[in-house]
């Protein structure tokens, strides 16, 4: 069964007829050719498909495209402005926060969404009392970025990159 | 060997340069296999055997074929016949036999991925089922000695064990583990009159081309394999596995249309290999001061009944420590399972677990510091072969690591430190990996439009090949990196060996050096537009004369929760001696990546085979744990300056794998120091420490 | 997965009527579990009714001092809610220890309660499972049981409930507000999930078509000092082997009240009533804490492969209580 929807992806509007079974991830990759979100597990267990959906980081593989009608999607490809990398992306390059690059767009989107969450005062399970206002130290970055697996093992550099990006944005 | 770098003013090699493919990767615009935009693709989904052993009696495909959008159901009945190339794993859909659960017995080709997957569920398969046996054990009576690893005995280990004042004799085990690169194995296959084009997630485009050409009876010139970016492999994308063959079989039924196949994560546990589990009996005989008089390892590993693969876990014991009596054996259990394959540091990685934990047990038994124990057993020449080392700086790594880690203040008594409810300890282990070189690469250099175009069919699976080969070419030509235009990842480029065995950079890099030299000899320093030269990888006679290995030392701090047994690794520090470092930024990533995977192996990884079903049951990334970001805290990699004039013109050793070697032993040894509990099996989960 | 129809519901009554009338219809919330199961073939609906835009998604104080949580509230919003963080930290902690930031941004309160077991045999449709296909048998017995139940299981099923949030809600004596075809009713959190018995296919007492619209927490002042302790294999992003949600009312060195629930040990969040009874009126010494934990786990029945869990559950419970008591003392 099919349904007509409209997706706004990286600022561009796409009217689209989708199979109701199609996930947001497959709609982006297979229908729109937006392949910056990656498919690593297709079950919300790796984070490679992370995109910003209406401003929040989510796993594109677990959202049906039909349920995203009218939504705004930003992928790693749409983060930069005027041809410049987003500060998080530049920090990943500077600190080599990746190797094979397959989890990277998801890591980058996750980091951008996560920094917003911290700015909004959201707590984490990193150990600080939940009632306190969070302070983004390395332990917080590690916990908050744990939904993005990296098999190449770039975590140490990812943490450095996110810390650097936070300092730049400050 | 003539030193390239002694003769030129080195600029690029050794420079801390960001990845040339970095911007593409952080924006997600680097194109991986499944992402090539081709017109009107069809989607392929495999049908997998749900019995372990037997034959398919009948497919009932009526319901599947009735699904709108289904193009065809592919089985052994309508698949093309392939040439027998002596690799039973690649004889995809060539018979009705089922040799392991999850085996590909067919596939559905459809207009959409949803339709293909739906239809696969509707295919009814009737089997003639036979009894199966997947139980891995060293007590099996049908173990056999593989031809490639005859027993290796020097002196008399049993005699040494009988007469030694101190002995260690324990059995250590490592589990089945899966490579699980983040990018699942993926293919787009296009079959046209002109030939077969494969967009493939592979560690070697040329080996895919030659193997596929042979299988399908095509002239290799009619097969093209394209892989500009590869989302990790760690060995599983080295040799070919059934999916790429399946995709080509399907494409052949649908000439002119691209056929897309990406494995699901679950299928990754059935179809593309894994690290064999190992059982290692390790014996050490020693004087009271820890000097070894004997060392032995008896390895049991598993293989598929229909295809042999040996995890050569005994290999590092040929290299590591001096001892007059030595015994190394391998036995295989042939089971009704899918074949194992390479996984990051095959042989060395599991093979440095048992022995390096045993060395820690010996240190405890002798009351000798474990760093000092290893120093005392440093050999003058490679123990098993007697050849001199081209360079060996294990002792320097141990000393430098001990200094950086703060080892000197360590109280050797276990279970002495408790902090906030956590027992704290430290441990050490050594690392080693052979410095190889693979034959068969050719590189071309062409001067055009003011740039040097360097072409070689290499693969970048995350190692940094795009970047470091550019650096090597720049220095070999004596030009800035900005003057070099590198092309890799396409079989239409000159032949390149696999990205595997930590040989990529040194094999391809040495080839590029040779091509650059040929270019300069022929065209001088002011070449005409269109000037070109090519060269193959020269032989290195030193490889016969010297034993060539990289070495390292890893230090771990481990915390074990006194109540719950939870294990954490707050500190991991490695120091490596691996020749010349071409790019410190990408090299550090290689080392920390290996160490992180080693930490993951120590604490988490375990492919659980349910013998009743004959397959891995925790077959996804929620149940098969790999380390997450929060598992890695203070992780550092360092290296010592090592000049090795013999290994290759670059003076470089491979670094992609050594980081995972010894890590698990260091962590297990630290956990012993923290708790007094000696764990001899992996993964080291919390129940080992519960009381 | 088979094709299905998708409808976005406008109001709860309509959504309930639609789903109740069609045995093959299901509600779609955040989708993090349902879409997962659609792909695995565990469920095969012909209609999904999207309720995400109609359910309340905030936290509001109730006149009796309790609070009401909208069932459509995302896990991340609930965990970050100032009132929840201050008055019921155990709930915030439980939510934050579950899944990942991305999943918490999608998962809803109602959906979290209804997530299904992670038993590997339940998730693989080629294997027998009484929960997925009643009467087909339980493959977990004699198989991979590391994450399986030690309390309240039956010969038909040893699966565990995977939610962290539900464990905290169980300890907090929450009430689940359910809209059915015959109107709204209230179900105690401790009664929502079932033990498997001979019908493991039924996770909860809800009927087909019932829609969770809200969860209410009672006024429980001592819950302001409560905590959730999750023990798992990975340091983050992993399901619990064992977890403990606990709140203790301590005054004059005596435990007046305790609220304790365990996760990862049973087919439902396991309210530790025996331990609570043992602790009531007791002085919190190491011995009394341990005795309470042992009383709770006296009936624990591990199977081959999870023999370690009673010890782990006992130790985790003792450690959590010890930490809480210590926190109270130093306050």
From TrEMBL, chain A:
Pathway where it operates: Alkaloid degradation; nicotine degradation
Ranges that cross the membrane: none
Stretches assigned to the 2Fe-2S ferredoxin-type domain: 3-79
A single MF term (Gene Ontology): 2 iron, 2 sulfur cluster binding
Family annotation (InterPro entries): 2Fe-2S-bd, 2Fe-2S-bd_dom_sf, 2Fe-2S_ferredoxin-like_sf, 2Fe-2S_ferredoxin-type, 2Fe2S_fd_BS, Aldehyde_Oxdr_Iron-Sulfur, Beta-grasp_dom_sf
Domain of life: Bacteria
Keywords: 2Fe-2S, Iron, Iron-sulfur, Metal-binding, Oxidoreductase
Name of the protein described by the UniProt record: Xanthine dehydrogenase YagT iron-sulfur-binding subunit
UniProtKB/TrEMBL annotation, chain B:
Coiled coil feature spans: none
Keywords linked to the UniProt accession: Molybdenum, Oxidoreductase
Keyword Protein biosynthesis applies: no
SMART domains tied to this protein: Ald_Xan_dh_C
Superkingdom, taxonomy of origin: Bacteria
Xref: InterPro entries: Ald_Oxase/Xan_DH_a/b, Ald_Oxase/Xan_DH_a/b_sf, Ald_Oxase/xanthine_DH-like, AldOxase/xan_DH_MoCoBD1, AldOxase/xan_DH_MoCoBD2, AldOxase/xan_DH_Mopterin-bd_sf
Aldehyde oxidase/xanthine dehydrogenase a/b hammerhead domain boundaries: 27-131
Keyword Oxidoreductase found: yes
Single Gene Ontology MF annotation: oxidoreductase activity
Pfam families given in the database record: Ald_Xan_dh_C, MoCoBD_1, MoCoBD_2
Protein name stated in the entry: Xanthine dehydrogenase, molybdenum binding subunit apoprotein
Source species of the chain: Marinactinospora thermotolerans DSM 45154
Taxonomic classification: Bacteria, Bacillati, Actinomycetota, Actinomycetes, Streptosporangiales
UniProtKB/TrEMBL annotation, chain C:
Family annotation (Pfam families): CO_deh_flav_C, FAD_binding_5
Keywords: Oxidoreductase
GO molecular function, one term: oxidoreductase activity
Keyword set includes Oxidoreductase: yes
InterPro entries: CO_DH_flav_C, CO_DH_flav_C_dom_sf, Diverse_Substr_Oxidored, FAD-bd_PCMH, FAD-bd_PCMH-like_sf, FAD-bd_PCMH_sub1, FAD-bd_PCMH_sub2, Mopterin_DH_FAD-bd
Domain of life: Bacteria
Domain FAD-binding PCMH-type: 1-222
PANTHER family: OXIDOREDUCTASE (PTHR42659:SF1), XANTHINE DEHYDROGENASE SUBUNIT C-RELATED (PTHR42659)
Annotated protein name in UniProt: Xanthine dehydrogenase YagS FAD-binding subunit
Organism: Marinactinospora thermotolerans DSM 45154
